[in-house]
Amino acid sequence: MQNTVSGEILLWDISKEDDPLLASTEIAVFNHREPITGLHWITHYGKHNKINFVSCSLDGKILLWSYEDDTLKLDHGFVILAKQLPRNFLIKARKDNAEIGSENESILCNKIDVKK
Question: Gene3D superfamilies, alphabetically (predicted)?
Answer without folding.
Answer: YVTN repeat-like/Quinoprotein amine dehydrogenase (2.130.10.10)
